[in-house]
Amino acid sequence: MKDPRPCVIADTLAVVGEKYSLLVLREVLLGARRFDQLARNTGAPRDVLTARLRRLVEAGILQKTAYSERPRRYEYRPTPAGLDLEPVLMTLKEWGDRHLRGPHDRPMVIEHACGHELVPVVTCSACGEAVRHEDLTAHPQVPGWTLTGPAAEGAPTGGA
Description:
Blueprint: H1 8-16, H2 21-30, H3 35-42, H4 46-58, E1 62-69, E2 72-78, H5 80-84, H6 86-101, E3 145-146, E4 149-150
Antiparallel strand pairs: 1-2, 3-4
Helix pairs in contact: 2-3
């Protein structure tokens, strides 16, 4: 069997796709920075939380900084890479509000600096238009792969 499709989404999920990883980042972005706060707010078991924090620090998503020497205690802050994940969290939240909760069962509302509730929209950086599925065309860049999977031996591999 051939290897699965090379994919940056899979690579990203290897870093932030474990249970509690994005919840830890959510809490840090909301201002909870200390281990006990993170444990309480995520519901993560302490050993699992320790492993997730270590992984997020190693991946450069969080920065670990000592805030007490006696006893030695740390807090966690987002790095620029962690801040770059905030729109992903906001988009996941919007999807959940729309498809899982409904308008009257939302545990949190995010307000934008303009004073209105944030409803994130993915836009094209070139033209500013909202991204819609029907406007997208994928172009596989890995030799031997087509849109639907591995190319047959000797078949062209260009995108459609």
